[in-house]
């Protein structure tokens, strides 16, 4: 101890307060606080071998190595840690219907905020739970309980996010602050209406009512999907189930909303094992001397397998729990890692869906796509995917369909070009031009745009309608053993434009990372995607394969996918 019985740290603070200007004092004190927090972080890591330091989308963090990961599971775990603290303090809480597709929101009365934060400190004060303040998607302040006192900006926030960080086997961040549980502190209506700047604050409330009607109501700190003002008569106790457990809420917060999608949505993959010797021999036999003719329409690289399907299914399991059933359409092949006994997946042979089996075998995705809607038991709304497509973030059915069944189309800024089909046109361009030639006479509309490489929403009744209306073009494409300049693109170009022109689809929005895996910049791009995890979808495509680089590219792709999706899905064999 020094001086007046102070510790060395306290003596430094005392000296700082006496001799330094205020701005300098602030910086020095922040430095001391930072040193103390760093020391506590080191102690926490040393005491618990299950914890590691990592770099996440919102900065450096300490997280725990996970044994499994789904977005829903991570969000539910953070909900439980918040609820445990509220229940330990004997506080009434309620679930609020937030806007996030995965994150849970808990409401507490503002009067209970102090007791709740004390309970959180008591339960998690020496641990790895984070508390953070967000403005939209941007983290503006955060702190970990083990570091000491939470930042004032966090404690003063009207909404605080709490989370444990989940790490993968390599120490990569899988579940960061974006999967935390938001706690909203709701004010009494009388207090809200009595504010001097009530008129200004009222502009931020979605439910506009006279000041007198706030009596007895609770007012939320931000909008939600139902109402941010809860009158006393609306606070009828109810429950909502999350992960098999019921949590308290209020009856209006349990209603099925007008924009909720409640119809089943399936997923359909077209897959081929290009390494299968029997399949490759059959393809070569039918291709014969026409290899050069078909090269520009898609060569052997289209069939190269790097186990992308396995990781795409992992992405589905992690981020798209709304999918009811998965269908994998193949030419009599089955991935050796696939658990065909799982009741959530079905392997479908081409022979089961082709209207005329004599058209088989076919080696063109254009042909196969014309028959997918024939799958027995397929939902009327479904997604069609290639195995090089991956979900990168939590998703929901509302991203692809509106509640009234209308599809949301992933338009691309890329265009198919003008003029008639030319021999040198790429397959997407020639197939798009052929679709344009079908639709323009019927609708007087000139289509120009392509679609992004993301899961494509499909309306099964529309596809049956197209099969009849444009029977000759559909039948001819179904019989194209290999891609042909006369093909139509059925599942995207024709389905999407026709659905929009007949009032059953509208433009949607999506964030896609598209990576040409043979591009020299691909390693850097993949590293950025892995670090940020900010894309709803990503596509790992190959524009111009370089055979001598295949081993290098295969290792790069497998390494990236294993880091992004390190845990097996239920669709894989044990």
TrEMBL record:
Family label: Belongs to the stealth family.
Domain Stealth protein CR4 conserved region, first and last residues per copy: 528-573
A biological process from GO: polysaccharide biosynthetic process
Stealth protein CR2 conserved region domain boundaries: 302-407
Span of domain Stealth protein CR1 conserved region: 263-289
Molecular functions (GO terms): transferase activity, transferring phosphorus-containing groups
UniProt-listed PANTHER family: N-ACETYLGLUCOSAMINE-1-PHOSPHOTRANSFERASE SUBUNITS ALPHA_BETA, PTHR24045
Keywords of the record: Exopolysaccharide synthesis, Transferase
Species this protein is from: Glycomyces albidus
Domain Stealth protein CR3 conserved region: 452-499
Pfam family, one: Stealth_CR2
InterPro entries linked: Stealth, Stealth_CR1, Stealth_CR2, Stealth_CR3, Stealth_CR4
Name of the protein described by the UniProt record: Sugar phosphotransferase
